[in-house]
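User: For my dataset I need records formatted as: sequence, then structure tokens, nothing else. Please produce one.
Assistant:
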Amino acid sequence: MKRTFRIEDILTVTTGRLVSECGFDALYDLLGFLVGEVPLTHQIPRVIRICTPHLLRQFPQLGGPEVDREVARLHNQIRGAVKDRAPVREILAAWRRDVAAKLGAEFEVADLPEELRDPGPPAEGAADQFWERVREDPA
């Protein structure tokens, strides 16, 4: 199955930086689509580790040096804005527009293959299962 997502939603997953205009809602939406169910908060780091390589296989240009430069540029702009008390929201909006113009605004994302969809243990009643998986997947 495929669905269209904005570049900043995908970059939120692949860069580890919350750059999406819709914030955590977009993160949960994209991850939920990829794994077939919305992950619980404690599952997000594991789901991101599973989903990032899948996204970068589909869109290798989003893992290249140009994205690294753009993220570094945003970091420097925000750091300067905080120091100068400038509006960070406007800087982030301009950055999103620039990145979308350079790399594309939207992408057709394919969901994860079924065998990769396990988001991890649920929050309740699975302590043994959780620790068993931690031992198997320490990353």
